[in-house]
Amino acid sequence: MARIGLGEGWTCAFANDFDPxxxxxxxxxxxxxxxxxxQGDVFALTGESLPTSDLAWASSPCQDFSLAGARAxxxxxxxxxxxxxxxxxxxxxxxxxxPPVIVIENVVGLLTxxxxxxxTALCGALSEEGYRFGALEIDAAAFVPQSxxxxxxVATRLPTAGLEGxxxxxxxxxxxxxxxxxxxxxxxxxxxxxxxxPARNTDLAAMLEPDAAVVWSPPEKTEALLALMAPAHREAVxxxxxxxxxxxxxxxxxxxxxxxxxxxxxxxxxxxxxxxxGGSSRQTLLVIDHGxxxxxxxxxxxxxxxxxxxxxxxxxxxxxAGLQVVGDGVAAPAxxxxxxxxxxxxxxSKTASLAAE
Length: 357
Known about the structure:
By secondary structure, the chain is an alpha+beta fold.
């Protein structure tokens, strides 16, 4: 999905993933994968196997950083895949082939994992290899109707003139994480001046399949779902039933005070998509139409649309596998905005610098 977000102006020179489902999906969507896609453990790769490139992108598994996970941090077995990636970056640096720009994407929990020590360690690793760095918290909701905040750490060895400044993506969590860094790392910090995108003009309802094309839950299951709602959420449903018309809400089941609850939102946004094995249950849709209430599960295709993927994007045949792919991804429009406003100008500065020489 990062490749789709970067766009056709970029050429993917190398890609790696351990997961066979994601590997198969990548091959299905990119017929030119050829030799550049390597399925397997990132720790099994060597610097010699990587080409020289302008950008290296790392989206390591997020479970150890997520609030829904165990918060094991960089020592966790899955998120420690970052160190496999970083070993490769150090090898390229030793050969004089380090990419001038690196992006590390992960959940917002990266900023506070182990009281900020993991983020400090990440910044320290970047600094040791001669990179300056900054971070942005970008919510996919700025581009698609899904609440999906993610941290994008952008590190570079290139000139940054004209690219620094204020940004709506300097969230409180970003500012606090930067303030926790020791002085030597703060000296390498960059406040990336990424502008705010135009207002989103789609909502959750626009992403959905036609009513006749999906499988609805039986009425008793919908009633059981409504029974799990706290009074405020149930009142929100009843108010829309009385108002008539059509309303679409996204529902999650959560544990509140040791009791399972169903929580619904009618703000036009889906909740953050999860993998089927994630810390939250699979997302349910609640549709109120002229006083009648129906419910159903979100489909993989609808999930793909919420990630900003075109309907031509090929998903696995299995519902579970399809949800795994979209739930583990990065929202493509967020990547496109980052590329357009920051990454491409950075690469252009490299080209301009070489031309000046």
